[in-house]
Amino acid sequence: MRIAIAGATGNIGALTTAALERDGHDVVRISRSLGVDLVTGEGLDAALAGVDAVVDAVNGQGGTREETVAYFAATTRNLLAAEERAGVRHHVLLSIVGVHRVTGNAHYAGKREQERLVEAGPVPYTIVPATQFHDFAAMVASWTEQDGVAPIAPLLVQPIAPADVAEVLAEIALGDPKGRYADVAGPEPQDLVDMARRTHQARGREVKLVPTWSGLFGTEMAGNVLLPGDGARLAPTTFEEWLAGQR
């Protein structure tokens, strides 16, 4: 099959590309750095010529809630319109578990708008909600770290290996549209603070972690909010197995 990956130069996009090419599929990489601009639509029609399915693994650019929603709205509208013109048969969107249970987060607001547009759009779709990735904890700590100290929210998550997410996206892109797919998660829950501590340790870094709800993530994300729902698809790679590769 000929499959386009939006956000192909990002972590998940690159891994999904590799998984599809490994199995002999023709992959079209969509990225601003490769000459295709999702915000303006420049280069999209040419990129999607002859494409059977599109995987949208585009990441947000940060900013305010309004800016984030506007970014995801623009990229999604342009992508769907170009897909309709090209006769693309399947749009696969990578989303986030719990995105409809968290209202105060700008990125989640953008993802909700993205989902809404896909559900109302002209192209048959599959929305794949995934939990946070195994590298999420250390990344979050890096956002707030100053002088070796990093405030971090004590979130309960069920992290998944990025490579496992890519395998699921590749598999789904090759099949028929399924609407909203089951939650996709790693095999077991973890505490974000402990994950960050162990990741830093594996990488030989000393960072003092300060658990707090006064930072980037508020108490609306506490408890089971970010955990997968019933009937979730559990990927095989544990956090410990991923961590072994960080040493």
Automatic annotation (TrEMBL):
SUPFAM superfamilies: NAD(P)-binding Rossmann-fold domains (SSF51735)
Pfam families documented for this protein: NAD_binding_10
Keywords, in A-Z order: NADP
Transmembrane regions: none
Domain NAD(P)-binding residues, every copy: 7-173
Protein name: Putative secreted protein
Organism annotation: Nonomuraea gerenzanensis
